[in-house]
Specification:
By secondary structure, the protein is α/β, with parallel strands linked by helices. The chain is built from six helices and five strands; from the N terminus they run E-E-H-E-H-E-H-E-H-H-H. Helix 1 packs parallel to helix 2. The N and C termini lie far apart (128 Å).
Length: 236
């Protein structure tokens, strides 16, 4: 829920309160913050501009009734102008149980009951004369020779023995570091490949050693079996 409250003083003791949005139990404290101090001020008449009040329930209308009663005790009152049909019906139903709130179809009629002598409706704002845009003359298209002259010039290479600017020194040093890094990377890659080849050779030699050991074990068993059979032969 949203409620916008705008206070417009139109006389010495008259105040117009323009409401926009919805007035119910949730937005009633917003309106109460503006209306409750009015009976203690010099304001005697309050006119509610309700043309933009989209919704109002009984709780919101009670706040208007309380302000109306407080202003009546000091010789003034509260009125509603330009109310919607739904708000008019709600005010008529509430008038049967409490002090009725005056309702007027237009703002001038509501202000006639206050200390405002003349109420002028603000007309549309007077248009401010604006100057016409002035077209600037466009330059003729540049010739190819002029286009070439407008191109940014590339930095020239220093002559032998000529001092380099600080930026050129930084660029030259960064290039040297980059080339050095590339060379070290190539060397490390070559060493890594050589290490991988050496590992492969070592693994192959290891496999051959295991195979040789297995052959030796088999030969050992065969020799031992042959010796044991020779020892068991009976003598002639």
């Amino acid at each position: 829920m949203h409620l916008s409250v705008r206070l417009v003083p139109v006389g010495e003791t008259t105040l117009v309160v323009a409401l926009t949005g919805e007035l119910d139990s949730t937005t009633r404290p917003v309106l109460a913050a503006f209306l409750e101090p009015l009976p203690q001020s010099r304001v005697k008449y309050v006119v509610i501009a309700a043309s933009d009040l989209w919704f109002c329930d009984l709780d919101g209308l009670k706040q208007l009734a309380l302000t109306h009663s407080a202003l009546r005790r000091k010789g003034g009152g509260l009125a509603v102008a330009e109310a919607t049909p739904a708000l008019l019906r709600l005010i008529s139903l509430m008038a049967e149980r409490a002090e009725p709130i005056p309702v007027y179809p237009s703002m001038p009629e509501a202000l006639k009951q206050t200390d405002v002598d003349v109420y002028e409706v603000a007309g549309p704002p007077t248009p401010v004369p604006r100057h016409m845009p002035v077209l600037r003359t466009m330059r003729a298209a540049a010739t190819p020779a002029e286009d070439v002259r407008r191109l940014p010039r590339l930095p020239r290479r220093p002559r032998p023995g000529e001092a380099l600017p600080a930026l050129s020194l930084a660029v030259s040093r960064s290039r040297g570091l980059r080339e050095q890094t590339l060379r070290r990377r190539s060397a490390l890659t070559r060493q890594l490949m050589e290490t991988a080849q050496s590992r492969t050779l070592l693994l192959s030699a290891r496999e051959r050693c295991f195979a040789s050991l297995e052959v030796l074990r088999t030969s050992r068993v065969s020799i031992r079996s042959a010796l044991d059979g020779h020892d068991r032969k009976p003598a002639p």
